[in-house]
Amino acid sequence: MNTTLQGKPDYIRIAGLSKTFGGGSDGVLALQQIDCTIQQGSFVTIVGPSGCGKSTLLRILAGLLDYEVGSVVLDGQPIHGTRRDVGVVFQSSILLPWRTVLENVMLPAEVIGLDKKEARERAMQLLHMVRLDGFEHKLPRQLSGGMQQRASIARALLHDPKILLMDEPFGALDAMTRERMNLELQRIWMESGKTVVLITHSIPEAVFLGDKVFVMSPRPGTLERVLPIDLPRPRTMEAMSHPVFASASATIRERFSHAASFD
Amino acid sequence: MTTAMLTSNAASATQPDDTTARPSKAPRPRRANPLASTRVQSILLLITLLGSWEAAVRLFKVPKHLVPPVSDIGVALWRGLATGPMAKDGFWYHGGVTLSEILLGFFIGGGIGLGIGIVVSQMPKLEALLEPYVAALQSVPKVAVAPIIVVWLGFGIGSKVVIICLLTFFPVLVTSIAGFKAVDPDRIDLLRSLSATRWQIFRKAKFPSALPYIFAGLNMAAAFSVVGAVVGEFVGAQAGLGVLILQMEAQADTGGSFAVCVVLSVIGILLTSLLRRVQRRVLHWMPADTSQRTVNV
To answer: Looking at the DSSP assignment, which residues form a beta bridge with residue B258?
Structure first.
């Protein structure tokens, strides 16, 4: 086990979670019997091929999707509906095009009703953290894809949520930008001390970022395996050539090909 | 204006790099031969066309009640404009009546269309229930009921306003429903993830997202409102530019009719350009598209 996490309380407990879309015989089982825990302050990555239900799991954690079977407890309270101690980063940045970058980052403050002045200060700090100083008053379309996604991370952190849920946030970026974003995200996570759950279909991304990697397999979506990644932080790109990295990647890849053989 | 469009296009075309991004400066417009400018050329074209019109009418001795020379239209225009605001044979009085009908019809019809569009869009069941009727009513030629409206409401301004409302209501209703339907569901999810209220979701995501569609409907409505006013006045009215055209044609004053048409065109152009100005301000965040440029000329 990752020694740095020992003694930390469980932040999320998922037990016997199943989710079916549609009813009757046409129903599609998206998640089957998911059991897992996520510790406070840890970085968990969920990796799996498309259709393994990983986005469904994240939407349930975000409270955007309800579930009928099983239980999902966040910070001691069962999740039913959205909550304000959660920050979500979506696949695309979803910046509102009519708002400037700063106004976009301030959106949670307006919705939740936080103090405008404090929120503005915090927004400026966060924009500095995601290295967007000087772009506060630009419109989203004047930013590159990577910058837009960084702005959306700043927005997700504005209301100081305890947990950050990220749904394939870098999927639309080119490989170079993506690697840089992974390094930045690690830095942001280490600075902010949040619990992060990140969904990805990239095995290197999952291993590079995760304290633990949840490996999921499709049809129906099941949690195949929880893989602890015992690599020191902060991890650099060189960590990718570490034997631990290689063996973890190989294990996951093997799981995937195993699952694919059932198709 | 053309240069403004060009610069904003150039700004949107340059996607800044992740690290070295700096919004690029617009290229300076080049000072060139004035004859090379499109605007000057199009004015020259207009002068040429009007000149050949004048020449042809005089050369071939076309009867004035069929096609008057341009100079006659100019004289009629001057005579019509050189009148007091309340003179019953002047353009100001009749133009004022027509303009009030247009503005009232545009705002009432467009407002009701937008209001119902918003309400219907927030209730998917109601929307599904009404959809076939809206589609069927939209294809009814609204001007066909103009005589009925005049019978119901009389020759006053009210019947004209109602006719214009009928014409402006549907485009705004249909485009606003389409606009709310086209809202990116991710934007709604984003606000939902923050536990936003229905009203917050509407105000911060849905309504601004639907605005480009709503403006498309308003532009249509503006053009229709001028048509509706004239048609309504043709059918039956005591005052208005449509009435003036009928009166002038009864006296075989075709030059006068043309002059009124010029006044109507000016009203139409002013209305649409005013609306476009509002649109550009409200939708300042949208990249200027080429379609807008062609419509603007």
So the answer is: none
Number of structural domains chain A divides into? 1
d(CA A114, CA A119): 7
Torsion angles phi and psi, residue A133, rounded to 5 = -60, 140
Nearest to A94 among B18, B190, B287 (CB): B190
Q: Which residue of A lies nearest to B210 if distances are taken between CA atoms?
A: A98
Task: Using a CB–CB cutoff of 8 Å, tell me whether B191 touches chain A.
Answer: yes
Q: Do B205 and A92 touch (CB under 8 A)?
A: no
In the block, tokens 């932080």 appear at: A233
Whether A254 maps to a domain, the answer reads: yes
What residue spans of chain B are helical by DSSP H?
2-13, 38-59, 70-81, 91-121, 124-138, 146-153, 157-181, 185-193, 198-201, 207-235, 241-250, 254-282, 290-296
Those residues with Cβ within 8 angstroms of residue B86's Cβ, 6 or more apart along the chain or in another chain? B93
In a domain, A96, yes or no: no
In a domain, A152, yes or no: no
Under a CB-based contact definition with an 8 Å cutoff, are residues B210 and B113 in contact?
no
- ipTM, two decimals, is 0.88
Distance between CA atoms of residues B37 and B3, nearest Å: 11
**Domain range for residue A219?**
7-81+195-263
CATH of the domain at A55: 3.40.50.300
Q: How many Å apart are CA A78 and CA B252, to the nearest integer?
A: 84
Q: Which of B190, B199, B281 to mutate to test the interface with A (most CBs of A within 10 A)?
A: B190
> How do the pLDDT tens digits run along chain A, 263 residues long?
444 445 567 789 999 998 988 877 778 888 989 999 999 999 999 998 887 888 899 999 999 999 989 999 998 888 888 988 899 999 999 999 999 999 999 999 999 999 999 999 999 999 988 889 999 999 999 999 889 999 999 999 999 899 999 999 988 888 888 888 899 899 989 988 899 999 998 999 999 999 999 999 887 888 988 999 988 888 988 888 899 999 999 999 888 776 655 44
- How close does chain A come to B14, measured CA to CA in Å? 8
Q: Tell whether A122 is covered by a domain.
A: no
B193 interaction partners in chain A (CB closer than 8 Å) = 62-64, 82, 86, 88
- CATH superfamily, region B101-284: MetI-like (1.10.3720.10)
